[in-house]
Specification:
3 domains; alpha/beta; Heat Shock Protein 90; 400 residues; Helix Hairpins; five-stranded parallel sheet; Rossmann fold; single chain
């Protein structure tokens, strides 16, 4: 590469030579050859060292034998202060020992006397090429660093905006849901009064309308309650402490059996499963997962439900599985969306908010939740309670 190909790059060169005529002659040659190089001179090694400290040139071109301080001594001092500077030594054949010493010190190039201008120009071009490359790399790295900083700031700003918008939306949903509860209770209450106190004045069709109105109000009330619960899950401050997940699972299953005493189901719960998390939110998550398993095995002849744990990629993974009605994996992406249901309300109760609440609880703990299922063969929900150290998602995990 020739330096003339990069006219926009400005370089500086310090030429150290004790003979005034030789110094000025070679300087004039270099000025003509390299117009974009600022060429300074010094008359001996000591003066050259002082100029180097003052001006910090990119390239040093020096003779060896000089009074006060020779070129080898100067080069050693300069390279001790700045090992990256390019040094070109001009040497006579009789100065072999000096030249070998200079090479050991780490000079960039050397040129033998009498000076061949072509070889000298090539040496300067080679040093310039390295300097230009280093500058380009440094500039590119600086650009990348600046772009990364800008990107990080933009992401941080956008994240803050989204979080603020999300908080506003959650507050709005909470307010709307709360405000709707009172009139809905009134509708439900008045429909019950009509049926109880005015049923003799209504024909069968009128009674049916009122019953349907009451059922719709009750259904809407349940939706609002679930929406409020979903909002509370998101807004509630997280309090981590040690939790006995096995104990929680046993208590939840006991409650399910008490509320549905006619049900017979084989439930297996792994013992001594401990972790850290918010006990109220984790209980709510397990209530939804075990409650779904209980609900969707209601029509199975020999229902089986299991809560357990396994290790995948060095991480603890929990699961709730059942042999119930399962689901089609083509719709797995809908499982954790609020009010999305894969089964009709006529078949199984619920509003479709439970799994959305579970997903938010797990996410707030830094974990992930995913599922696998097959129609008629059951479903398994897997979850973790902390962010993986490897930064991986679910590849290599059960059910992934």
């Amino acid at each position: 590469m020739e330096l003339q190909q990069y006219p926009d790059f400005r370089l500086s060169l310090l030429y150290v030579e004790d003979e005034p005529e030789i110094r000025e002659l070679l300087r004039s040659v270099l000025v003509r050859k390299f117009p974009n190089v600022d060429i300074r001179t010094a008359e001996n090694g000591m003066a050259g060292l002082e100029r180097f400290r003052e001006q910090r040139p990119d390239i040093i071109l020096t003779d060896i034998r000089m009074p006060v301080m020779d070129g080898i001594q100067m080069t050693r001092r300069i390279l001790e202060e700045d090992p990256a500077v390019s040094v070109i030594i001009i040497s006579a054949c009789s100065e072999t020992d000096y030249l070998l010493e200079a090479i050991k010190m780490g000079i960039s190039r050397y040129v033998l006397k009498p000076i061949n201008h072509k070889l000298l120009f090539e040496a300067i071009d080679d040093c310039a090429a390295r300097i230009i490359h280093e500058r380009q790399v440094k500039a590119q790295n600086e650009l990348i660093r600046r772009l990364n900083e800008e990107l990080e700031q933009r992401v941080a700003d956008r994240t803050a905006e989204l979080e603020a918008s999300n908080r506003e939306l959650q507050a709005f949903c909470y307010s709307v849901a709360h405000d709707l509860s009172t009139p809905l209770r009134g509708i439900n209450g008045y429909s019950n009064i009509l049926l109880e106190e005015y049923s003799d004045r209504l024909d069968d069709e009128g009674k049916s309308y009122i019953e349907r109105m009451g059922a719709a109000a009750e259904r809407m009330g349940q939706l609002i309650n679930d929406l409020l619960e979903l909002s509370r899950v998101t807004r509630r401050e997280l309090h981590r402490e040690k939790i006995d997940l096995s104990y929680l699972a046993h208590r939840i299953v006991l409650d399910l059996r008490q509320h549905d005493s006619d049900r017979q189901a084989e439930v297996t719960i792994a013992e001594n499963v401990m972790d850290e998390g918010d006990p109220i939110l984790i209980r709510l998550a397990l209530e939804n997962l075990l409650g779904n398993a209980w609900k969707y095995t209601a029509r199975v002849s020999s229902p089986r439900i299991e809560f357990g744990t396994c290790i995948a990629n060095g991480e603890t993974v929990y699961f709730v599985s059942d042999n119930g009605i399962g689901f089609d994996m083509a719709y797995v992406h809908k499982l954790f969306i609020p009010f999305q249901r894969l089964h009709g309300m006529g078949e199984y109760g619920g509003t479709g908010v439970g799994l959305a609440a579970v997903q938010r609880i797990i996410s707030r703990h830094g974990g992930r939740i995913w599922a696998e299922g097959e129609p008629g063969k059951g479903a398994t929900f897997y979850f973790t309670l902390r962010r993986p150290a490897t930064g991986s998602l679910v590849e290599g995990y059960p059910g992934a």
